[in-house]
Amino acid sequence: MIGPFASIGNGCVVDASAKIERAVLHDSVEVAGGAVIRDSIVGAGARIGQGALLEAETIVAPGATVAANVSVEAGRIGSE
């Protein structure tokens, strides 16, 4: 499910079972099944693993990988 208030960049691949709400995905982001991204920003080329949960203003750096079943609230993943 995508929305409400989600912005999805070019070339993103979002599994049908993922949820994206009030979030920004830059270009070429891959989101695996069951992942939930809320109120967060995901940099270009990042990969979000199956069942991952990102919320509360989490920022994922470009090219970073979030492993399966990881939960992050108001954190920063990767470096810029």
Brief account:
With 80 residues, the chain is mainly beta.
Can you describe this structure?
The chain is mainly β and 80 residues long. It has one domain: Hexapeptide repeat proteins (UDP N-Acetylglucosamine Acyltransferase, domain 1). Helix content is 0%, strand content 38%. The chain is built from no helices and 13 strands. The strands form three sheets. A five-stranded parallel beta sheet has the order 1-4-7-10-13, with no helix packed on it. Strands 2-5-8-11 form a four-stranded parallel beta sheet, with no helix packed on it. The N and C termini lie far apart (29 Å).
Characteristics:
mainly beta; 4-stranded parallel β-sheet; 13 strands; UDP N-Acetylglucosamine Acyltransferase, domain 1; 80 residues
Give a short account of the largest sheet. 5 strands, parallel
**Overall body shape:** globular
Are there runs of 5+ residues with pLDDT below 50, and where? none
SS element count, helices: 0
Outline the secondary-structure elements.
Layout (H helix, E strand, L loop, with lengths): L6 E2 L4 E2 L4 E3 L2 E2 L4 E2 L4 E3 L2 E2 L4 E2 L4 E3 L3 E2 L4 E2 L4 E3 L2 E2 L3
Parallel strand pairs: 1-4, 2-5, 3-6, 4-7, 5-8, 6-9, 7-10, 8-11, 9-12, 10-13
